[in-house]
Amino acid sequence: MTSPRLEDFPSFRRRRRLRDLKSVPVLPSLVTLGNVFAGFLAIAKVADALRTTTPGSPFAAVVSLFETAAILIFVAMVFDALDGRIARMTGQATPFGAQLDSMADMVTFGVAPAFLGKVLIDWHAQTDANSILPRHPKLYYGAAAIYVLCAAMRLARFNVETGPQEEDHREFRGMPSPAAAAVVASLVALYCTKDEVSSVLGHAILAPHHFDAIVVAMPLVLVVLGLLMVSHVPHPHAMHAIAKGRHSFPFLAGLVVLIGVAAIEWQLALAVATVGYAIWALVLGAFRMVSRGRLDVRRDDGEDADGFDAPSDPRNN
């Protein structure tokens, strides 16, 4: 009978696992932590808006805090885009980095946008001068909860289905959580320009009731974005499609116009870009579904009226 080895004892195996965990990629992890830090600051800014005002205060008193929270979500998107690329470029893509990235994304693109949208809804669902929405607190809680829960499932599915290779990040099944968060943040930022005198272009296109429609539609927006995240609708990687794909001249001209609008009023440009991306993905999914249906019809046309396959060429037997 052989005596047990030191490695077989549980305490030794735990210490060994802890030693292995010390070997983590530093630079990609710091970038990922910058992502979650920006997400935490976005939540903190919205909390500051609640803390520094009294019930019934006009939304104009906290516009700067809501706008800063929306900006921080986009800053986090920059960190999120860089950490994976840096990890792959330096050969430091590890399971630890993938898990840390999912935790950061859950805070920044799951909790923060839902909290931002929920507080915006609640601010305008009261019996005061800010009233735009009817009071349905359970409904609004449910909309925000659906977004958060779907974001968690989306991130878990992404970890299971996606590898570290570059080609695995060219197209996503379901809306990526950063894209969903960008839609919420851009709409909130656009609403913050409702009373800005400097927003000439936005007010030329949108009337005051159009800005109010953003708040009215926000509960539905949260639910739809959540369902899109867990759907099978294909969503192309936007930067990969623009940078490496070939497009028509009108597409390039439209992109230049969008960049010009962003230089003047970034809130309007971001809202157009993010909502347009969501619509583009839905159209792409519908097109592929129709194309797949036509292909199935063509395959069925290869059968005769009795349901038997048409005779094959004897030379292929």
Briefly characterize the structure.
The protein is an all-alpha fold and 317 residues long. It contains eleven helices and two strands, in the order H-H-H-H-H-E-H-H-H-E-H-H-H. Strands 1-2 form a two-stranded antiparallel sheet.
Can you walk through the features of this model?
The chain is built from 11 helices and 2 strands, in the order αααααβαααβααα. The chain is mainly alpha-helical and 317 residues long. The chain has helices at residues 10-21, 26-51, 63-89, 95-123, 137-161, 177-191, 200-205, 208-229, 238-244, 249-264, 266-300; strands at residues 171-173, 234-236. A two-stranded antiparallel ribbon has the order 1-2. Helix 3 (63-89) runs antiparallel to helix 4, helix 6 runs antiparallel to helix 8 (208-229) and helix 6 (177-191) packs across helix 11. The chain has one domain (22-297). The model is unreliable at 303-308 and 310-317 (pLDDT under 50). Helices cover 69% and strands 2% of the residues.
